[in-house]
TrEMBL record:
It is found in: Cell membrane. It comes from Poecilia formosa. CDD domains: Cadherin_repeat (cd11304). GO terms for molecular function: calcium ion binding. The chain crosses the membrane at residues 688-713. Potential calcium-dependent cell-adhesion protein. May be involved in the establishment and maintenance of specific neuronal connections in the brain. This is Cadherin domain-containing protein. The lineage of its organism: Eukaryota, Metazoa, Chordata, Craniata, Vertebrata.
Length: 806
């Protein structure tokens, strides 16, 4: 606008000047001054008076002044000095804008005569403006994937100065990526653009800060700058990268689900979704996928299932890392499984022998076992031992094989069976163990002889016992087992008692060990005897032990006392003489008696049973002494008869009486006259003798008759057989085995004999009864047992033909 205005004004001024010149004709030459713009007020522009050729008086008189059509008076005329000075700031840019040559004109008018002098002042440009950008920052967002050669037009700067002082050049901060290219627009303004010459990399430099400087050509040069902020936009140009190519780690078996194993880490230089990584397990076998799991975002690999060292000792998996753009990396994870002692040893019995014989030597193998432990290393290192102190040993000869052997001699009688506890334990921490109990039975061997319950037996039996009565029961125990080794048989050892085989005294029941008396004993003949009984078991070979049995026969009061003195004779008369002068206490005689029994049964006492005069004599109770107890008088009869009874102390007691004749006289004739007849005793004795002789005669006759018959029969048979077999054997006369002629004394023998024939097996004993001597009779006591009767029956069946009882 100002330029238009000024042009108009100049036109007007020019017309005015022309008019003035034409009217006055006093127009002098044209003056031009050149001044730079922006001069200070009162700065000298030029010596106008001098330049116009006027002196100062003329100026004054002519009232020189400046006329201008402008409102603003830039210059002032100093009349007194004749100079033209700046009166107002002159801004070329304001005055002329972009017009390159800028000037303004005015006239100096003088009056009297009127003179008109045109003055033109050319305003020269001064570089008083810097190039200016409209904004202080230029913000650009450029993808890092931008192609090379891409152009980015930048805002241009403006400089109102003209010519060289105007905008001349742009300069960009040196950088690798961009170069600056400058252009001139059709309107003539200059602008610049950045051209990409090297790929951007957000990852290396996400931001670029550049400065664009606009320069003018003035002197001094002025410039303006703008900051260019370039934000590099991401492109998915980076793949994830694992920070390790192989991850090695360990995991213990049986770890709980969720246990952290390892964290893999991949980084992606890209940002945003391009850098968002997800992890996954690739290539894993299906079972591994069940055991392990990876967090897709954090890369934490953890336990998901049951990890069993016994199945997998090592895992090798590949892990992929993938960004959202699809770029991937993979890495290997090697996981070693660490064994945990989670498997107890297992005991397998390869062989086991039971029962084992008790005579097995130490070191006998009883069993072989095998132990297994699925764990490895120390956890699978198994050792076996036996619990407690059983006499066994376990040792390993092959790896994991153990033999169980006896360590000492076994004895079934002390320990029947063993429960051998074998413990197998591994060396883990803590160790695991397994237990197995072997029930071993010890089998019997006949290693023990029967043992009697007493080292010796004493048994008492009253005399006159009934044959077959049981005297004593022996018992022997055999600690061995089973039927044979422990079956005890009792055997009477052969020996003789008083020259008679002991078997004729006693028999032993083989099964029960009961000792039976075979005969009736007479204490007066035998008081005791001893023999040996053997207890023998049924083992092979049999074992036996002996015991001594002593049988003590006890006395019974079976014998009456026998009076030895005074001797009782049949006819003759013996009398003790007592003189009439005998004092009181005179020893008349002494009854002497004995009793073959013993003890109390033989303890005799004497009593006066009958007496002619009881007041005259007494008998010593203990000693049998007959003494007077008063003075003998003449009135006392010569013939005194005393009956003394001798009693033993047995239960019941037995007694004997003796008659003692005492003659109270001073001379022998006196005695004779008195002792002439004692008829009754003789008569009694005669009768007795008669009966005895008669009985003996009858018995003897019967016996001889029998003998004759038997011999006749035997001879007859022998002849028959001789005829039959034409034998040339000599004739042997035969007598019954127990035959003996014991006929004798004429007294009845009260001793009887019988004989027991024994076979080696005492259970089949056979009794044979034979009469001894002339008495072919068996005397059975009323207390005779059933056994005896049975034996008698057997005897009848098994009777020998030669028996005298046939
Ligand atoms: C991965 O590694 C980088 C650098 O080593 C680290 O800054 C980042 O935190 C790690 N990431 C994880 C999940 O540990
Ligand atoms: C890789 O990253 C994991 C998880 O952050 C870290 O434990 C491991 O030390 C890193 N490895 C290296 C070599 O930096
Ligand atoms: C051995 O074990 C068995 C069965 O448990 C038991 O009956 C027996 O009494 C035990 N024997 C010993 C000697 O401990
Ligand atoms: C038992 O006694 C018999 C006969 O006296 C003898 O031969 C045998 O050796 C004895 N046996 C023992 C075990 O003492």
């Amino acid at each position: 606008q100002p330029s238009w205005k000024w042009r108009f004004l100049f036109g007007f001024q020019w017309i005015q000047a022309v008019l003035l010149f034409l009217s006055s004709h006093a127009v002098s030459g044209h003056i031009r001054y050149s001044i730079p713009e922006e001069m200070k007020k009162d700065s000298l522009i030029g010596h106008i008076a001098q330049d116009l050729g006027l002196d100062l008086k003329r100026l004054r008189s002519g009232r020189a002044r400046i006329v201008t059509g402008e409102s603003i008076q830039y210059t002032e005329l100093k009349v007194d000095k004749g100079t033209l000075v700046v009166s107002e700031r002159i801004d070329r840019e304001q005055l002329c804008g972009e017009v390159a040559s800028c000037s303004f004109s005015f006239e100096v008018i003088l009056e009297n005569p009127m003179e008109l002098h045109p003055v033109t002042i050319e305003v020269l440009d001064v570089n008083d403006h810097s190039p200016v950008f409209k904004k202080t920052h230029i913000i650009l967002e450029i993808s890092e994937s931008a192609n090379l050669g891409a152009r980015f037009v930048l805002d241009s700067a403006e400089d109102p100065d003209v010519g060289v002082n105007g905008l001349q050049n742009y300069i960009l901060t040196p950088n690798e990526n961009f170069v600056l290219k400058q252009h001139v627009s059709p309107e003539g303004s200059k602008y610049a653009e950045m051209v990409l010459q090297k790929q951007l990399d957000r990852e290396a430099a996400p931001h670029l800060s550049l400065r664009l400087v606009a320069l003018d050509g003035g002197n001094p040069q002025r410039s303006g700058t703008v900051n260019i902020d370039i934000k590099v936009l991401d492109a998915n140009d980076n793949a994830p990268v694992f920070n390790q190519s192989v991850y090695k780690t360990i995991v213990t078996e049986n770890s709980a689900a969720g246990t952290h194993i390892v964290t893999v880490n991949a980084t992606d230089a890209d940002s945003g979704t391009n850098g968002h990584i997800t992890y996954s397990v690739s290539n894993a076998k299906s079972n591994i996928a069940e055991l392990l799991s990876i967090d897709p975002h954090s890369g934490v690999l953890s336990v998901a299932g049951e990890i069993d060292f016994e199945k997998d000792k090592k895992f090798e998996i590949r892990i992929d890392a993938k960004d959202q753009g699809g770029l991937t990396d993979s890495s290997k994870v090697i996981i070693e499984v660490v064994d945990v002692n989670d498997n107890p040893p297992v005991i397998n019995v390869m062989s086991f022998t039971s029962p084992v014989s008790e005579d097995s030597p130490p070191g006998t193998t009883v069993g072989i076992i095998n132990v297994k432990d699925l764990d490895s290393g120390d956890n699978g290192q198994v050792s076996c031992k036996i619990e407690g102190n059983a006499p066994f040993r376990i040792k390993s000869n092959l790896r994991n094989y153990y033999t169980l052997t006896t360590d000492s001699v076994l004895d079934r009688e002390s320990v029947l069976e063993y429960n051998i506890t074998v413990i197998a334990s591994d060396s883990g921490k803590p160790p695991l163990s397994a237990k197995r109990i072997f029930n071993l039975k010890v089998s019997d061997v006949n290693d023990n002889a029967p043992v009697f319950s007493q080292s010796a037996y004493d048994a008492f039996i009253g005399e006159n016992n009934s044959p077959g009565v049981s005297v004593l029961a022996l018992s022997a125990e055999d600690p061995d087992e089973n039927q044979n080794n422990a079956r005890v048989s009792y055997i009477l050892e052969d020996s003789s008692v008083n020259g008679v085989p002991v078997s004729s005294y006693v028999s032993v029941s083989a099964d029960s060990g009961v000792i039976h008396a075979v005969r009736s004993f007479d204490y007066e003949q035998i008081k005791d005897f001893q023999f040996i009984v053997k207890a023998q078991d049924g083992g092979s070979p049999p074992l036996s032990s002996n015991v001594t049995v002593k049988i003590l026969i006890q006395d019974q009061n079976d014998n009456p006392p026998q009076v030895l003195y005074p001797v009782q004779t049949g006819g003759s008369m013996v009398a003790e003489m007592v003189p009439r002068s005998a004092d009181v206490g005179y020893l008349v005689t002494k009854v002497v008696a004995v009793d073959v029994d013993s003890g109390q049964n033989a303890w005799l006492s004497y009593k006066l049973q009958k007496a002619t005069d009881r007041a005259l004599f007494e008998v010593g109770l203990q000693n049998g002494e007959i003494r007077t107890i008063r003075q003998v008088t003449d009135k006392d009869a010569v013939k005194q008869r005393l009956t003394v009874i001798v009693e033993d102390n047995g239960q019941p007691s037995r007694s004997a009486t003796v008659i003692v004749n005492v003659a109270v006289a001073d001379s022998f004739p006196e005695v004779l006259s008195e002792f002439t007849d004692f008829p009754h005793d003789k008569e009694y004795n005669d009768n007795l003798t008669f009966y005895l002789v008669l009985a003996l005669a009858v018995v003897s006759f019967l016996f001889i008759a029998c003998l004759v018959v038997i011999i006749s029969v035997k001879i007859y048979r022998w002849r028959q057989s001789r005829i039959l077999y034409h034998s040339s054997l000599p004739v042997i006369p035969y007598y019954p085995p127990r035959y003996s002629d014991t006929l004798g004394t004429g007294t009845l023998p009260h001793v009887y004999n019988y004989e027991v024939c024994r076979t080696t097996d005492s259970r089949k004993s056979e009794s044979k009864f034979g009469g001894a001597g002339s008495q072919n009779m068996l005397i059975m006591e009323p207390s005779s047992t059933g056994t005896m009767q049975r034996i008698q029956n057997e005897k009848n069946i098994l009777d020998e033909p030669d028996s005298p009882l046939e």
